[in-house]
Amino acid sequence: MRIDLHTHSNVSDGTDSPTVLVRKAQRNGVAVVALCDHDCFDGLPEAEEAGRRFGVAVLPGIEISTHSGDAQIHLLGYGCDPWAEPLRGELSRMRASRATRVGDTLGKLEALGMHLTESDVLEQAGAATTIGRPHIADALVVKGYVADRDEAFAAYLYNGGPAYVERETLDLGRAIDLVHQARGVAVMAHPWIRGNSEAVAPELIARMVREHGLDGIEVDHPDQDQETRRMLFDLGGRLGLVRTGSSDYHGRGKTGHEIGCETTRPSALHEVTERIAARGGDLGTVEQILNRL
Ligand code: AMP
Ligand code: ZN
Ligand code: FE
Ligand code: FE
């Protein structure tokens, strides 16, 4: 059974609608897929409907933008009640900050000799409720300034890059607490990609477990090499964490991240659903999730 616990639709910065994403999961032999759009739950009803149609179990997820000190950290939440406050309000505040950041980014690009308007970016964002740098990257591609998203990030948009603009994110510990208050399970996404291992020290992860009850870490991720995964697997084992694996699929937005290219072991999914149940969530066991299809 293939289980992929981290994907993005065009409700944030993926390129497939939730329906197409679930259809592709089915085609790739994925039995359980979690939709984890950035800072919003809006794609879940459509994904769940598609899941029933195509016989794929859809686990409701989210990827929350957080920080700890200078480190930018993504936190996955599974099984959250999308209506729970204050999580819902905080997410909406972060999405608003993303929208106002677009103008500032365009100003920086203008100073670098590249002219884009807000409507160029909104056109690329299309159905998205969460606007991000990838949509600005897409607008740069359309205008011919760069060849693809990767080049846009590598040249201008990377963290600290010449066209980078900060935005609001949640404190990591608080985000874990908010996920738990929404009766969800909190898993740190790809802790050690892009040289993040210094900023996200093992001590930080251990403290999040101790002080906030962090539930898991993402181990098998396309952007973490084998040695990194081995170290994360060991660390997670020592800390009693759920260790997951996923593609971080973004459609055409990211190459090398096909749905199901990395997977979560069934035993780890069991741990996730048990922890959701322990928090009062009503997803049921893995068997019940699959039987509802
Ligand atoms: P934002 O949410 O606006 O901060 O933009 C971050 C998003 O951009 C993340 O979801 C990443 O998936 C994506 N991203 C970050 N770095 C790159 C890169 N080098 N190439 C393509 N996408 C990237
Ligand atoms: Zn993304
Ligand atoms: Fe991420
Ligand atoms: Fe992601």
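^ fe (iii) ion complex. The beta strands are 2-7, 30-35, 57-68, 71-78, 170-171, 185-188, 216-220, 242-245. The two ends are 14 Å apart (CA to CA).
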